[in-house]
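Is this the right way to post structure tokens for a design question? Let me know if I should format differently. Anyway, here goes:
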């Protein structure tokens, strides 16, 4: 059984010009979080969905997702103060109520996730207990010193940009989160990093440039053009 945990509880603090958190911004006929939600709803191998949101928006979201009730049951739960905490709360809910074998964890701020990428992860679930999507960079990298002067170049062949969803054997990622909590780590950048912290291997699956994260106004403009 495969469960998708969709993280949508952030405050979008980097979008200074917006009052509404970015996941609830309307783009065309849909809100941003609905783009990735629909991808997972329509995927035949995803059996359950846990949507983790800010508790202030629970009633609003429950009303908005009524249109999807014939596709799959969507479990809407309140998230935490950090991405890591929201992910953990999603895992805890899945453990208590859904009992999945595998889990995909995705940031709804990546609205262009495709069924092809989800398939690429699912096809390898029985071979790797932990996987992340990632994309090799195209641009040159350099280091800037404290005077905003170019200081050094970095080789780019071995550097990748992390993407979601990340896919895990359920018990493996749950243990990684519990290990991090024991160490009082609260602000992990993603779930795969918690496996790395434990000394576990994380398999890399090639992502896509289209699976970009909406962080800035430029990202929103690009998304609007694409849709």
């Amino acid at each position: 059984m495969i469960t998708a945990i969709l993280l949508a509880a952030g405050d979008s603090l980097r979008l200074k010009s917006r009052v509404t958190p970015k996941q609830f911004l309307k783009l065309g006929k849909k809100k941003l979080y609905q783009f990735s939600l629909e991808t997972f709803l329509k995927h035949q191998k995803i059996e359950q969905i846990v949507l983790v949101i800010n508790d202030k928006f629970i009633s609003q979201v429950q009303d908005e997702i009524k249109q999807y009730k014939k596709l799959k049951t969507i479990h809407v739960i309140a998230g935490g103060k950090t991405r890591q905490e929201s992910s953990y709360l999603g895992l805890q809910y899945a453990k208590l109520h859904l009992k999945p074998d595998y889990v995909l964890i995705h940031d709804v701020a990546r609205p262009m996730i495709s069924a092809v990428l989800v398939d690429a992860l699912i096809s390898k679930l029985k071979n790797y207990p932990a996987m992340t999507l990632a994309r090799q960079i195209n641009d040159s990298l350099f280091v800037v010193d404290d005077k905003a002067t170019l200081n050094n170049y970095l080789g780019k062949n071995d550097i990748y940009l992390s993407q979601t969803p990340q896919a895990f054997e359920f018990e493996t990622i749950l243990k990684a989160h519990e290990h991090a909590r024991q160490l009082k780590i609260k602000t992990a950048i993603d779930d795969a990093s918690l496996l790395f912290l434990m000394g576990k291997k994380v398999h890399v699956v090639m992502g896509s440039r289209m699976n970009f994260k909406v962080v800035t106004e430029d990202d929103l403009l690009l998304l609007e053009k694409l849709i």
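Format looks fine. Someone answered above. Worth noting: Residues 2-226 form a domain with the Spore Coat Polysaccharide Biosynthesis Protein SpsA; Chain A fold (CATH 3.90.550.10). The first helix runs from residue 32 to 42.
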